[in-house]
Design goal:
alpha+beta; Immunoglobulin-like; 60s Ribosomal Protein L30, Chain: A; Serine Threonine Protein Phosphatase 5, Tetratricopeptide repeat; 7-stranded mixed sheet; 6-stranded antiparallel sheet; 13 helices; 33% helix; DUF3868 domain-containing protein; DUF3868
Length: 469
């Protein structure tokens, strides 16, 4: 049912002299109308304003210079605010011809729209009329429109013609919630020595029972190049000092354990000798070890496979039998599965794992650290990342970028994840904050971040909402 209000408002006034309405407004209409109606009315400067007193204020200028009804006629101008089925009428302005005006005066009757109407005899009507009115603000007025209806009346109050014009519209502005989460960052401990390492795995092929490396045999050139590239990637960096190279060789379970141990040892020492010829490393720089048979690697494959007898083979691997007995039992009990392992898995169990250990120098110059955040973040300690972050304004884009770069370099570190979660909260990214907080530990600082995340989610992840500060 249409909610229509026709009432006299104590807060409503029509200014009969030239002037301007002064008000402290919260929001202004999005349309400033300048229209001309069928009665000759011109309207300009129409605005709708939601005032601090929680009223909807209407302000416009009515140009009545061409509104000149004949002696027996009247023109009634009625502004109103409407949104859907809701509306509120504002006091009308009536301009009456001579006879029509005198009729109402003699009869002592109310004007056409009642006592709230502001009426003028045509000869006394001002050419320009500043118009203002205000009504209590209600929720439906968000998205409303200001319109004005012009009606031309003849004798016996018959409406001879009428029309309506849109003057302005009003939408509540989006206002930002002031959200100040209580966050606490942790300063990472400084590293006395920034020890790091690079690890890799090479699959060097050897002819049967041979331990000497042949660089041109099968894919050996590629595998040996991988090792050299790993070493060179840090050896040639002026900020890095190499401390050691570790090589560990493995053979597959095929054949006897004693033979495999000889092969693993011999091939590991052969690889060490090959690397020593490439670099002038100090004595004892390269450390070696070996494992006769890579049963751990075999178990990992079997556990993730679809072998018909997977569980039974796993039970054998996990059992107490000696290595040669295990290999024989698998081969003799499950020959089909064993052939699959021999062809598809055993070659990959013959590998050499290597690790390059090195130390990165300390950085103290803030500008240098800032550059490294962008160019070589892996060289920085968490404490150095924090130094860079602190050099920016908290919550700024650069501050957040540093914190989130740090957690990429140290993805499993609790402090890095906590500080990155705080940074994500500052940019109102609930999804990233939740992911970081999974690894942020259970300290009081993480508790504050989780509380802030709850607040953010309660706001739907959006810290802007209509009509709320």
């Amino acid at each position: 049912m249409k909610n229509r209000i026709n009432t006299s408002l104590s807060a409503l006034a029509v200014l009969l002299c030239c002037g301007a309405l002064t008000a402290s407004a919260q929001a202004v209409s999005v349309q400033d109308a300048s229209v001309q109606s069928l009665s000759g009315l011109k309207v300009s400067g129409a605005t709708l304003t939601h005032t601090p007193e929680d009223s909807l204020s209407v302000l416009m200028t009515l140009d009545l210079s061409e509104v000149r009804p004949s002696s027996n006629r009247a023109v009634v101008l009625t502004p109103y605010v409407v949104h859907g089925t809701d509306s509120v009428e504002l006091p009308s302005v009536g301009i009456y011809g001579r006879n029509r005006y005198l009729y109402y005066v003699r009869e002592g009757k109310s004007q056409l729209t009642g006592a709230s109407e502001h009426s003028f005899r045509v000869k006394d009507c001002p050419s320009s009329l500043p118009y203002t009115a205000s009504v209590p603000y209600t929720g439906w007025m968000d998205g409303s429109e200001l319109k004005i209806t012009s009606r031309i009346y003849g004798c016996c109050s018959d409406i001879l013609d009428e029309g309506s014009n849109l003057l302005a519209s009003y939408t509540e502005p989006v206002k930002e919630i002031i959200w100040a989460p209580d966050l606490a960052y942790i300063t990472p401990a400084a590293e006395t020595v920034k020890s790091r390492d690079l690890q890799g795995r090479a699959y060097i092929d050897f002819p049967v029972n041979v331990t000497e490396i042949r660089a041109d045999y099968r894919g050996n050139a590629v595998e040996l190049a991988k090792i050299r590239a790993t070493i060179d990637s840090v050896r040639q960096d002026k900020d890095i000092t190499l401390t050691s190279l570790s090589i560990k060789g493995f053979a597959s379970p095929e054949g006897s354990y004693a033979a495999n141990e000889r092969l693993a040892r011999g091939r590991t020492l052969s690889l060490k000798s090959h690397v020593e010829k490439l670099y002038a490393f100090p004595k004892d720089f390269i450390k070696t070890s070996w494992e006769a048979e890579d049963w751990a690697g075999l178990r990992e494959y079997v556990a993730g496979s679809s072998l018909k007898n997977r569980d039974a083979i796993l039970a054998i691997i996990d059992g107490d039998l000696k290595p040669d007995a295990k290999e024989w039992k698998i081969r003799s009990t499950y020959p089909a599965d064993y052939r699959t392992l021999l062809a598809e898995v055993y070659p990959g169990l013959r590998h050499s794992d290597y690790r390059v250990d090195y130390v990165i120098r300390q950085f103290s110059d803030v500008e240098e650290i800032r550059r490294l955040v962008v160019s070589d973040p892996q060289k920085l300690s968490l404490n150095e990342f924090y130094i860079a972050a602190q050099s920016y304004e908290a919550g700024s884009e650069d501050f957040i970028r540093v914190m989130e770069t740090a957690v990429k370099v140290y993805p499993d570190d609790a402090v890095a994840n906590l500080n990155a979660a705080n940074a994500a909260l500052l940019r109102k990214d609930a999804e990233s904050a939740a992911r970081y907080l999974q690894k942020a530990g259970d300290g009081p600082e993480a508790g504050k971040a989780r509380k802030a995340l709850e607040e953010l989610r309660a706001l739907g992840g959006e810290l802007k909402t209509k009509g709320i500060y």
